[in-house]
């Protein structure tokens, strides 16, 4: 499991970011969430508790968290971005039909990075692996 909300908040404070109740709620929601939510999903989940919060507020805070290195932005196809607060090395399986993203662990592909570097001369900074298919629900024959 990645950092706790408290560790993340400390990290933000050290960069001079003021912690508002909204920011705390967005970050907590992301850290507790296994669904890699979109900004809209975060908005729908939090708007009952924060009626004055707009989708723009959520986007702005997500940008802030991404820049601070607390949250990873996942862009797949032309769908809206999804956000992941789990920064540990892990990979994603993505359902082509409903868009569900599920984390899975696999030994990190450092060999792939080394080979890419050797063969291309690139200074490799990272990689992303995605597995595509149908999730259990979408793959079920529906009668």
Strands side by side in the biggest sheet: 4-3-5
Tally the beta strands. Answer: 5
Quaternary structure of the protein: single chain
Strand count, sense and closure of the main sheet? Answer: 3 strands, mixed
Number of helices: 6
Whole-number radius of gyration? 17 Å
Helix-strand pattern: HHHHEEEEHEH
User: Ranges with pLDDT <50 over ≥5 residues?
Assistant: none
Name the overall outline: globular
Mean pLDDT: 87
* Helicity, as a percent range: 40-55%
* End-to-end gap: 39 Å
Classify the beta-strand content into a percent band.
Answer: 5-15%
What is the SS-derived class? Answer: alpha+beta
InterPro entries: FUR, Fur_C, WH-like_DNA-bd_sf, WH_DNA-bd_sf
Keywords: DNA-binding, Repressor, Transcription, Transcription regulation, Zinc
Protein name: Peroxide-responsive transcriptional repressor PerR
Family: Belongs to the Fur family.
Keywords summarizing the entry:
41% helix; two-stranded antiparallel sheet; transcription; alpha+beta; 3-stranded mixed β-sheet; 143 residues; WH_DNA-bd_sf; zinc
């Amino acid at each position: 499991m990645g950092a706790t909300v408290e560790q993340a908040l400390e990290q933000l404070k050290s960069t001079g970011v003021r912690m508002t109740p909204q920011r705390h709620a967005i970050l907590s929601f992301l850290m507790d969430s296994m669904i890699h939510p979109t900004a809209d999903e975060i908005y729908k989940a939090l708007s009952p508790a924060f009626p004055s919060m707009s989708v723009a507020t959520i986007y702005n805070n997500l940008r802030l968290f991404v820049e601070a290195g607390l949250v990873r932005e996942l862009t797949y196809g032309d769908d809206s971005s999804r956000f992941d607060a789990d920064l540990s090395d892990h990979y994603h399986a993505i359902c082509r039909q409903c868009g569900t993203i599920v984390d899975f662990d696999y030994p990190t592909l450092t060999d792939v990075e080394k080979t890419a570097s050797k063969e291309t001369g690139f200074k490799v900074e990272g990689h992303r692996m995605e597995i595509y298919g149908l999730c259990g629900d979408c793959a079920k024959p529906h009668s």
